[in-house]
Backbone:
């Protein structure tokens, strides 16, 4: 990657900040990402016209990273946000990246961009010191210019400073002189999204919107049930229909799945033809249904990983004044982003370009290069705007399908899932079963805690996330197991943390109720980490929490609940109020507090917490995937009920945290404690302790 | 051949049976109108036909022949800055009412349709008009604020 002509490029390590352990585990087990060929790549350019370009391998799927990155660069270069242009997710233009997941954008890449911008600042100051014949210490920066402190008439624009030659700077290893929080004028301030205009005018281009000249629309024949294999295709009738350009049928081979598709001039022609294709599928028989899942989890639990262990749980339970034992269950749920996946591929001179709304453009590039046995340098993957992903769009088989079909057709090809395909051929948040045994002393203080979770699927990282208890206990044991999974599982916002927190924070409420203790006070007594106290105090203050034991009120259909959580290094607390009787629960009010260290864009953090809470209400109250024989029975919004606008509670969010503490994630936090907070409020309101999600299915009609 | 106006321009469509959403996106290149469910359940494909919000994914071109179709691109076609946006678009930007943004054109179009027939809607009327829309990112708190802002302040029946 080399820039042309004059200007200043800042290069730096593309693996900055990512723990080696994490990188290795992703590379080998999860997504088969290759490491970058070249660790030093370009992060930032100062152009001769004074514009600053920032480059990042992250993608924008709703988190607001483009805005956050622009703010970080603008801060270090003392620029207005509109002088910074951020390019994301295009493998030809941006530094290599692992993928946009695990709240790594602000934590690692945003920090590296700040370091790149600070490096550019130092280089610009040096250049200006030479030209103005002044020591750098007598120079300042303002409005895109380096200015002599004692004689503001003497100044040079960033563009002027770099216009005479091409220059390259490198981000130094170790400490870089970053702007300190006390001097921030951009970071930590309320800013709107830099890409907001395009989103309200329809100008933003998502992967479904990439339309190329000569584009063919594909209708891919999809298996009618999980694991079905295509045995035979008869497309003689389909081929005769108007607009059909080609029928492609590539049988399965070593390392490649079968692919059969109709290619047509228009989307509707392709679909019409596909509907008259005679395809014979060999389906798997005897696939389990949703009712079998708890038994499958229990029978196939394996690879138990001890996450926490101290003391002796049996001994602790034996000496406890009171013990409790309960199990909690969460079914599979669907990711259901608004934009079903789509990909468009074009071959030109043995170079492949694929537009795909994936969270993992570099990983997809590796997959494509491996499939076509060509160097990665000849494959370009561009992730345009993404209409929601929440973890699910790391997996993106449509990119390869589009590339295979475009190669066969000799024209660009677009493959797009419809809503049913997006659900059926996706991954799901794993079903999970959690069993907890606890014991308290006569004062209600925790003595023993045993937590055993089984999460469906082989991806152990999912189930382990958020399983550790933060509550002090002498005897403690936390074990997480994997198990068979009848449905394919994958990443979804906070991985297993939301489900683990549902179990743990519900059980803690049960302990408090049994001890007649206020659940806020009980938590305060058992939490050591001050940051937990910070968020809990703030949420309680905002909510106006009144001390009482759960369920000790009138049980008149109104109730309150609390839960705390931790994920990706950030802390969260929620207080909720519910109203309603019978089988409908309405969450009326939520007060939240988050501590994610330095909040780069506080309004962006608030937006993420609000959104996580709202999205989480779905899995809490109504969402569950129904399936039978390898078929999802509720693949559309008619029978898969996600939250709608009339389900919206009043939500207020407090952002606490020390700006000197480095930024950690915000996107995954809102969903983490919501299910438990609502379940606890439902108990307070009705006296019904519901230990299975979604809650509304379990509620008994008002008596 | 059915004729219609799209964003003020007269158009002749080849095929009256053509799905309106596909026609707008693929034949006219107006990709601001989105596909998300194809069943009229999520509102992402909402356009205005003679000022009324309509699900384009459930409509044929022939069914709106002779009509005046407005898509998100047609609300403020020349807008180069915030001040030139349609007031509803501006309100969504000012309230930061978006995350991924995929559903937003649909919400904006339904809001324009709502405010045209009911300039000062109650909170209940807003929720009813937008009940058939989905924002999976969960930005409803902000969308409600944006609609209230576009309607010129807090709506009656809204909670403080």
Residues:
């Amino acid at each position: 990657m080399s820039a042309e002509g004059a200007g200043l490029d800042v290069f730096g390590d593309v693996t900055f900040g990512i723990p080696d352990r994490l990188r290795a585990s992703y590379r080998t087990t999860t997504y088969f990402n290759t490491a970058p060929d070249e660790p030093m790549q370009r992060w930032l350019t100062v152009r001769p016209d004074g514009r600053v370009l920032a480059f990042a391998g992250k993608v924008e799927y709703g988190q607001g990273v483009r805005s956050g990155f622009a703010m970080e660069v603008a801060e270090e270069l003392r620029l207005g946000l509109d002088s910074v242009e951020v390019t994301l997710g295009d493998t030809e233009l941006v530094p290599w990246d692992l993928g946009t997941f695990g709240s790594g954008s602000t934590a690692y890449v945003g920090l590296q961009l700040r370091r790149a911008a600070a490096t550019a600042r130092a280089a610009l100051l040096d250049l200006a010191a030479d030209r103005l014949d002044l020591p750098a210490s007598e120079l300042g920066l303002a409005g895109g210019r380096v200015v002599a402190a004692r004689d503001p008439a003497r100044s040079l624009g960033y563009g002027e400073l770099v216009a005479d030659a091409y220059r390259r700077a490198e981000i130094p290893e170790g400490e870089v002189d970053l702007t300190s929080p006390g001097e921030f004028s951009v970071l930590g301030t309320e800013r709107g999204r830099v890409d907001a205009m395009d989103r309200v005018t329809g100008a933003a281009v998502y992967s479904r919107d990439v339309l190329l000249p000569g584009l063919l629309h594909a209708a891919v024949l999809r298996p009618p049930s999980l694991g079905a294999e295509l045995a035979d295709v008869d497309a003689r009738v389909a081929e005769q229909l108007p607009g059909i350009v080609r029928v492609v049928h590539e049988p399965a081979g070593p390392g490649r799945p079968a692919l059969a598709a109709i290619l047509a001039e228009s989307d509707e022609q392709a679909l019409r033809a596909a509907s008259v294709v005679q395809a014979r599928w060999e389906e798997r028989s005897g696939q389990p249904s949703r009712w079998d899942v708890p038994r499958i989890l229990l029978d196939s639990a394996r690879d138990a990983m001890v996450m926490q262990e101290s003391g002796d749980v049996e001994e602790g339970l034996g000496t406890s004044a009171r013990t409790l034992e309960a199990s909690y269950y969460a079914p599979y749920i669907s990711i259901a982003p608004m934009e079903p996946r789509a990909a468009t591929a074009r071959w030109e001179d043995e170079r492949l370009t694929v537009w795909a709304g994936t969270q993992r453009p570099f990983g997809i590039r590796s997959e494509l290069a491996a499939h076509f046995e060509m160097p990665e340098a000849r494959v370009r993957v561009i992730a345009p705007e993404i209409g929601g992903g929440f973890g699910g769009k790391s997996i993106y088989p449509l990119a390869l399908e589009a590339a295979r079909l475009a190669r066969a057709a000799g024209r660009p090809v677009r493959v797009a899932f419809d809503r049913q395909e997006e659900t059926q051929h996706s991954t799901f948040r794993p079903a999970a079963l959690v069993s907890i045994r606890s014991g308290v002393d006569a004062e209600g203080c925790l003595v023993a805690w045993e937590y055993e979770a089984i999460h469906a699927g082989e991806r152990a990282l999912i189930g382990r996330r958020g399983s550790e208890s933060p509550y002090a206990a002498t005897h403690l044991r936390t074990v997480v197991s994997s198990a068979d999974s009848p449905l394919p599982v994958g990443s979804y916002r906070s991985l297993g943390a939301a489900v683990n927190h549902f179990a743990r924070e519900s059980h803690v409420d049960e302990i408090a109720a049994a001890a007649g203790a206020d659940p806020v006070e009980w938590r305060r007594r058992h939490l050591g980490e001050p940051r937990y106290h910070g968020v809990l105090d703030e949420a309680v203050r905002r909510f106006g929490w009144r001390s009482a034991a759960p369920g000790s009120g009138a049980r008149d259909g109104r109730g309150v609940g609390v839960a705390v959580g931790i994920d990706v290094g950030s802390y969260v607390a929620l207080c909720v109020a519910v109203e309603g009787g019978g089988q409908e629960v309405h969450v009326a009010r939520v007060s939240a507090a988050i501590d994610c260290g330095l909040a780069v864009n506080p309004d962006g953090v608030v937006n993420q917490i609000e959104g996580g809470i709202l999205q989480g209400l779905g899995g809490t109250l109504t969402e569950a995937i129904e399936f039978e024989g390898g078929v999802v029975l509720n693949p559309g919004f008619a029978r898969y009920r996600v939250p709608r606008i009339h389900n919206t509670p009043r939500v207020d969010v407090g952002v606490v945290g020390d700006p000197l503490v480095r930024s950690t994630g915000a996107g995954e936090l809102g969903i983490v404690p919501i299910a438990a907070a609502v379940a606890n409020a439902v108990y307070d309101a009705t006296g019904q302790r519901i230990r299975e999600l979604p809650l509304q299915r379990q509620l008994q009609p008002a008596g | 051949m059915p004729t219609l106006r799209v964003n003020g321009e007269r158009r002749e469509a080849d095929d009256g049976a053509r799905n309106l959403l596909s026609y707008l996106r693929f034949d006219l290149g107006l990709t601001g109108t989105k596909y998300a469910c194809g069943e009229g359940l999520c509102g992402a494909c909402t356009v205005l036909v003679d000022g009324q919000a309509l699900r384009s994914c459930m409509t044929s071109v022939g069914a709106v022949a002779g009509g005046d179709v407005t898509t998100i691109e047609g609300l403020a076609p020349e807008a180069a800055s915030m001040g030139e946006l349609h007031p509803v678009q501006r309100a969504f930007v000012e309230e930061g009412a978006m995350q991924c943004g995929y559903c937003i054109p649909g919400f904006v179009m339904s809001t324009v349709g709502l405010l045209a027939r009911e300039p000062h809607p109650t909170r209940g009327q807003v929720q009813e008009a937008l009940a058939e829309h989905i924002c999976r990112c969960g930005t409803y708190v902000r969308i409600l604020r944006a609609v209230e802002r576009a309607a010129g302040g807090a709506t009656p029946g809204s909670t403080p």
